[in-house]
Amino acid sequence: MTTEARLEAHLRELLPQVLGALTRRTGDFDRSEDAVSEAMLAAARQWRAEGVPADPRAWLVTVASRRLTDMWRSESARRRRELQAVEAEARPAAPVEYAADDTADLLFLCCHPDLSPTSQVALTLRAVGGLTTAEIAAAFLVPTDTMTRRISRAKQAVAAAGGGFGVLDAATRSARLPSVLRVLYLIFNEGYSAAAGRELARVELSSEAIRLTRQFRESMPEQPELAGLLALMLLTDARRPARLDGDGGLVPLEAQDRRLWRHELIDEGVAILTDVLPRSRTGPYQLQAAIAAVHGEAELAQDTDWPQILGLYHLLERMDPSPMARLGRVVALAMVEGPRAGLAACDELAGELGDHHRWFAVRAHLLEKSGEAQAAVRAYREAAQRTASLPERDYLTRRADRLGADPD
Description:
Layout: H1 3-26, H2 29-50, H3 56-73, H4 102-110, H5 117-127, H6 133-139, H7 144-160, H8 170-192, E1 196-197, H9 203-219, H10 224-237, H11 263-276, H12 284-297, H13 306-319, H14 323-337, H15 339-347, H16 350-353, H17 357-369, H18 373-386, E2 388-389, H19 390-405
Parallel strand pairs: 1-2
C-alpha cells in the first residue's frame, strides 16, 4: 500500500470517531459533519506535507471544533474558510473525551427511523464511511446534485428529530439495530451485485460494508447477528474473483473455478460462525452465513451438501419469510428433489415475485433442467428484459440464445 493510500485509509478510519465525538459534545450532527469534512481536507493537505501529528484524532477534533465555532459565530458566513497552516500545530485546549462506541452511535444516528432505507444508506456512507457525495452518487447511478439533495434532506430530518447522541439509550439502540444491520447488508449487496449499470460489482461499496461491519462489531461484540452478518459478507465476498470469466462474462456459482476463491476469507467467516452459533440464539444473518459456509467448504460444486442447505433454508424461511429467502429455498429444493419439484415451488411464488427478474431467471434454469427448452428461452428472455444489470442481462441473453439455437 502506498503512503498516499495509507493516509487515506487512516483518515477514513478516524472520520466516524471524530464526527461521533464532536456530535456527542455539541448535539449538532449537521454542522459537525460539515466541520469534520473541512478538518479532514486540512489534514489530508498538511499531514501529507508535514507528517501525521502525535495525536491525530485530537488534532482533527480541535480543528473541526474551531470550524464549528466559526459557523456558530456567523451563520450568514457559510463560505468555506481555508484552514491556516498554523492549525497544524493545534493542540486541544482541554482533554478531548471519546467514547468507545462513538462510531456505533453515529451508525445508529444515520439509521434514524424517520429516514427512508435509501437515505439511511446514503447518510451512512457519507458520515460513517467517509465517501464523498460524488462517489455515493456514482455508486447508485444518480447525478451528484440528486445525491446532494438526498443527503441534505436526511441530515435535516435527523436534526429536526433531535439529532444528538443523548437519545441513544439502550432501548433506542436495540430498536434501531435491525435497521443498522439492514443498511450494512444493503451496502454490501449493492457492492457485490450492483442492481444496475455496466459493472457486475462495485468493490468499493462491498469493501466499505465489510470495513464498517468489522468496526461496528468491535463496538458491540455481544451482538450475535452482527457477527453473523460479518461472516456472511466474508464468505460471500470470497467468491468475487471467480464471478467473471476472461471476457468479463458472469459465471454462475456452480460453474466457478473454486481455486480462485479467497479461502482466507472463507476460513475467517467459518471461524466467526463456529464461535457464535453455539453461544447464542440463531438469527437470519447467521443462517445465511451458514448457507454460504456450506457452499464455501465444498471443493467442487458436486460436493455441495444440498440437503443441509435445504434444511437451513427451511429454518430461514420460518424465521424470515422474505420472498428472496423463499426463492433460495426453491433452488435448494430443486437440487435435492429435482427440477420438477423446484418448478412447482417456484410457481407458488409467482404472486410475490412474478415481476422480479430473479424469479424468471430461477424458473428459466429449472425449465431448462426439466428439458422444456422453448419455455426456458422465453423465461430467460423475460428475465433479461427485467434486470437493469448489464452483466446479468448479457448472461441471461446468452443462455436464451444458446438454448434457442440448440436443435434438441
